[in-house]
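Field guide to reading this record: the first block holds the primary sequence, the second block holds the structure written as discrete tokens, and the final block holds curator observations. Each block starts with its own label. This record concerns GNAT acetyltransferase, catalogued under organism Acetanaerobacterium elongatum.

BLOCK 1 — SEQUENCE
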Amino acid sequence: MIKLAQHQMVNIAPLFSHSTETMIYTCLQGHMGTAWADNADHPACAQIVVADMCFFAGNAKTKESEALVRNLPPKGFNKDTIYVIPLNDEWCELIEAIHPNGLEKFSRYAIKKEGDNFNRDLLRAYIKALPSEYTLKRFDEALYHEALGNEWSRDLCANFATAADYIKRGRGYGILHNGRLVSGASSYTVYDDGIEIEIDTLESYRRKGLALVCGAALVLDCIEHGLYPSWDAANTASVALSEKLGYHFDKEYTAYAIHFS
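BLOCK 2 — STRUCTURE
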């Protein structure tokens, strides 16, 4: 098993060519993440880790593929849970065999990536409908630090090392109530052509339409700047929210959470 340098990422790209997961692009293009393979020059299997997401591809029937799956958590990983996306059933079998303890199997929901087919007028109408007691604000240094300081909102900015890094590469919108961040939509990760969206709302402010407003603002911002706002849903509520914004459901797929304790 070999940890790949950036110039070697091109060699594993064909193994992931059937996936439309933008976080794979994030790593292959050198924006964020780390990759390993059985061979740097002629890989048959590979692993990509970006933030708390892990992807496997290639031949899952070798000793080298077993070594990759055992590389969880990877060195330097500092979270309690990693989410694993296998790209075929053989990887599913291997993951279940090697990590029988602390393993949770669940479904995620892929959303179609259809380019700029969004209804801008509808997005603007959602934003305009925000009640006057709330304030919509673009993420800046202060909101970056506030988001990181709350457990519920940390993922909005956590994959950017500094506020300067976030402001340079990321983009996001928050909703404030009485000066406090209560909902946000932001770039979880970035890739050459866009971002992967993260949306979070403080529990006591949910079901008020705030995520819809934040999402509309971020989607509108992205498409007006030539970026694609990629969406992948962790649950059916996220699917429903995406569809209100103009996305379309693609398919359900298998994922795993591996909990470390």
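BLOCK 3 — OBSERVATIONS
Residues 210-224 form the longest helix (15 residues).
The CA atoms of residues 93 and 212 lie 38 Å apart.
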